[in-house]
Write a structure and sequence with these properties.
single chain, 180 residues, alpha+beta, four-stranded antiparallel sheet
Length: 180
């Protein structure tokens, strides 16, 4: 039989016992239609990324299914009809995951990572943020405040700016070679 992973989100104002009851009724429905539920995981109440049907949070539940497609269609039909279910997703998989899912594993230690699971000093592309910031400011981390050519061009630009400011302050044009 085909293998599926089904995740559904129940409304936030439903109790945990009611969510367990929903999970059991969905499991019975799958078994009545010739399938089996290999694993169920309750992920808890989690914040939604955006509001769904006036809800900001929801109870997340994962079910690993070994069932024919007719049983999954009936499960999805019942989820659509149930007012306590605000979203569901069923995905066909090649093999079912043994052990805890990635969501349950992420609840453990983060190992020096931030809230979103990424290194704090790396951006979303995996690049070093400090290196990019220093490069944008004209500094090279390995060569000090301003390295090599960047230092020479910065000094030349500063000298030019200083001469221009001095000329503007004195109000004379004698240095430029023109007379009034």
């Amino acid at each position: 039989m085909p293998l599926y992973e089904n995740v559904f989100i129940a409304r936030q104002d439903v109790s945990s016992q009611q969510v367990d009851g929903l999970t059991e009724s969905f499991s019975k429905l799958i078994e009545e239609n010739g399938g089996t539920v290999a694993k169920t995981e309750y992920w808890g109440v989690r914040s939604l990324t955006y509001r769904i049907k006036k809800n900001r949070k929801g109870h997340y539940v994962l079910m690993n299914l070994d069932a024919p497609s007719d049983a999954v269609l009936e499960l999805e039909r019942n989820m659509r009809l149930n007012e306590d279910i605000i979203r569901y997703l069923t995905v066909a998989v090649d093999e079912l995951e043994e052990g805890p899912s990635a969501m349950m594993q992420s609840r453990g230690g983060r190992g020096g990572r931030g809230r979103d699971g990424r290194d704090r000093d790396r951006d979303f592309r995996g690049r070093d943020r400090d290196r990019d910031r220093d490069r944008d400011r004209g500094r090279d981390r390995d060569k000090g405040p301003a390295g090599g050519e960047a230092r020479a061009s910065a000094e030349a630009e500063t000298a030019t700016n200083t001469e221009t400011a001095t000329k503007a302050e004195t109000g004379t044009k004698a240095e430029t070679g023109t007379e009034e």
